[in-house]
What does this fold into?
Amino acid sequence: MQNDYSTNKISNTLMLEIKKALQSVSTYGSVEIYVQKGIVSQITVRNIRKTAQKGKF
It folds into this structure.
């Protein structure tokens, strides 16, 4: 399974995980990919909700 997440040769499994993460971002957000010793160890998805307030505080 570690070979599936290696950064030396990007597997279809890893590409699908990254694609799924990107698709889960709503209007605003980010995807962070953490690599440890040449292996993707974590994919973090952040969705940002903007407030609807206008004007100055």
